[in-house]
Amino acid sequence: MSLEDKLYPLLSFYDRLPLGARSAIGAVYRCLPTSIRRGKHYRGFQKIITEGETWSQEQVWEYQKQQLRKTLRQAAGFCPFYEKRFAEARFSPESIHTPEDMAACPLLTKADILENLPEMVSRAHPQSSQLYITTGGSTGVPVGFYLQKGISRPKEQAMLEGMWKRGGFFEGARLALLRGYVTSTRSTGTISTYDATRDWLMLSSYHLTPERVGEYLSELEKFRPDLLYVYPSSALMLADYIEAAGLKWKIPLRGILCGSERLTNPQKLIIERVFGCRAFAWYGHSERVVLAAQGRNSDHYYFVPQYGFVEFGSPNVDGLCEVIGTSFHNMVMPLIRYRTGDFVRLVDPEEANEFPWPAVSEIAGREQEFLISATGRKISLTAFNMHDRVFDDLYAVQFYQDQRGVAQFRYVSGPSFNPSRLGAIEQSIRRKLGDDFQFTLRQVIEVERTPSGKHKWLVTSLQADENTKP
After folding, report:
1. What pTM did the predictor assign?
2. Cα separation, 256 vs 41, whole angstroms
């Protein structure tokens, strides 16, 4: 198991230490060999993502077939939920000979995970190998699941870095992050802190206002990062404030890594114009089922075939297809033909592509939604994708806002939810919102949905120019 996974339960304690203590501990940690920090499998996944870019279609399918059968056999033999599902569908892992054969396997939904989580965990792996993670997702439906310690997180980091190289990343790069990190719960608090474990500058998305843009530029110019690692919405706000103040970006960057939110072409052009480098985007999710990123010379998103197996649902009236994925390597809790709820626009098969992989031209959804504080701060809802148990046993969550600085947190509780946990939920949300925000909790039978039936993170009556992207 990697040292990172062993220390993961202590992360919240580390974050509460004084800055000096964190810097000293982090500097020592960063000097440890990569094989110790990230585990013995990290370099293997690095090799797969690097060499895999040169594989032929035949090599890709042989690898995927091997991983699919391994995943399916684990599920069929050791996960009660899948044992029953496969038997009902008369599906066998041994029936997989071509990619099309996966269509005979039953689909998996978020509701299936919420209702059957214990039965989806493999009996073949002890509790000590399980790492529990949750996500609010892009639709406001909290989902909890298990990753495999020593495998899932080293794999994620290795494959992200492999993709990021197309956008300018290199090993040892100094990154400045602007993607939802909380530096202070006070609206006038500090805007940055230093992560010595990775040599990264952590900037607050919550304090980014026109009045404080000079502070952000000062911190960035002192740190001199190689790349920015951002929520697109945060990068757009910073770019907008720089131009509005008549300032200039002075730091030469190798690239801007944009994730967790949708990045449109007009937004991309603004970011690239202001910061003078490429804005490189990718797509993934906490469940770690599939992963995609733009190419070196193309803005199409290519799904990494060594990461997981991707399928696409039938086109809807807008020509968009749902992403359906099957995870590789996580034997603790395989996710098989998982309906992600994310929709994409497929690339015309006749178009020239950089890789012989499934490719899409657009990733819809994951819109940049904001709560607006009393002082005008924009708080991205992407930052409320909690990775602890705070939203466990809630079937749906949603924010409602009809005036600045005031919001209501609506929730639908499941049968196992204990109201005594409301205090912890309130504390967790308040830490994200800051001291220029009032909010209340309200239990509801159902949250408001889109016309197509999807849950919504945010219902707002504020003017569109206040609540949409800058």
Report:
1. 0.80
2. 28
